[in-house]
Design a protein that fits this description.
The chain is of the alpha+beta class and about 260 residues long. The protein has one domain: Jelly Rolls. It has one helix and 15 strands. The strands form three sheets. Strands 1, 3, 4, 6, 9, 12, 13 and 15 form an eight-stranded antiparallel sheet that branches. It has a five-stranded antiparallel sheet with strand order 2-5-14-7-8, with no helix packed on it. Bound molecules: magnesium ion. The site of magnesium ion has 7 residues, from strand 7 and strand 8.
Length: about 260
């Protein structure tokens, strides 16, 4: 009787696994046919709050990625050439259409600080207003967007884990004002065979306010379809996105964990 019970439990688990496999299979097959809107949601809307002041100078053990002077630690993410983003008065600004930039150095588990602002001259709306992003490991995007009185899908607003997790609150400063992101990121782990051992996790403070609380990522950022992990290197570059808007940055530093 015990044996029968064991067999029956085992077969239940097996049928659940098969059902999940079948579901995943279907999802992947249909991925290319899904519209982008299939993974965008609008409610609940994160409450709007007023954040305080929160800039942070780098601690002594940080690697400075941008201190206002030059982009020696960065390359164009498309072709590896020297970036042509604009530097003026210690401020780095996206040169729209030239491509994103990525660090020459690779990173895994990190604490990352950066400051950004959307253009004071408001242009466009929704995803077209002040859009950039910090894409950790070139795969996991923390959205940068002018989300000050600018409606869009909430899992695509500023400080969202793009197309996955909306922020707990909307702490975005007005256009032209500086925002800070403090990000604690744990890279995913895979075994030799490529099986996921532990997913990526992320905590984000936006202007000093907790907006992502140790969120477990479902996989790399996907504009279309359902995220799905595939094995990748333990360390990869940090990428700042060119989404066609002149978003500015300053004071970027990173601390490697482990
Ligand atoms: Mg973006």
């Amino acid at each position: 009787m015990q044996l029968n019970m064991k067999i029956s439990i085992t077969s239940s688990i097996l049928s659940i696994s098969l059902a999940l496999t079948a579901f995943t299979g279907v999802a992947q097959d249909e991925k290319t046919e899904l519209p982008p809107e299939a993974t965008e949601f609008y409610e609940p809307v994160p409450p709007k709050i007023e954040a305080g002041e929160s800039t942070t100078t780098a601690p002594s053990d940080a690697k400075i990625l941008f201190d206002g002077s030059d982009l020696t630690g960065w390359v164009n993410e498309k072709d590896g050439s020297n970036p042509t983003w604009n530097i003026e008065g210690n401020i780095l600004t996206v040169n729209p259409g030239t491509g994103g930039i990525k660090t020459k150095e690779n990173f895994g588990d990190i604490q990352l600080h950066l400051e950004w602002r959307s253009p004071s001259e408001i242009q466009g709306d929704g995803q077209g207003r002040g859009n950039s992003g910090v894409i950790i490991m070139e795969k996991y995007e923390v959205q940068i967007l002018d989300s000050y009185e600018n409606e869009t899908y909430t899992n695509g607003q500023a400080a969202s884990i793009y197309k996955q997790s909306p922020p707990l609150v909307n702490a975005t400063k007005a256009p032209g004002e500086w925002n800070t992101y403090d990000i604690i990121f744990t890279a995913p782990r895979f075994n030799e065979e490529g099986m996921l051992l532990s997913p990526a996790k992320i905590t984000v403070l936006h202007n000093g306010v907790l907006v992502q609380n140790n969120y477990t990522l479902r996989g790399p950022t996907e504009y279309i379809g359902i995220p799905n992990y595939t094995k990748h290197d333990e360390k990869l570059p940090i990428h700042l996105q060119d989404h066609g808007n002149p978003v500015s940055f300053r004071n970027i530093w990173v601390r490697e964990l482990n």
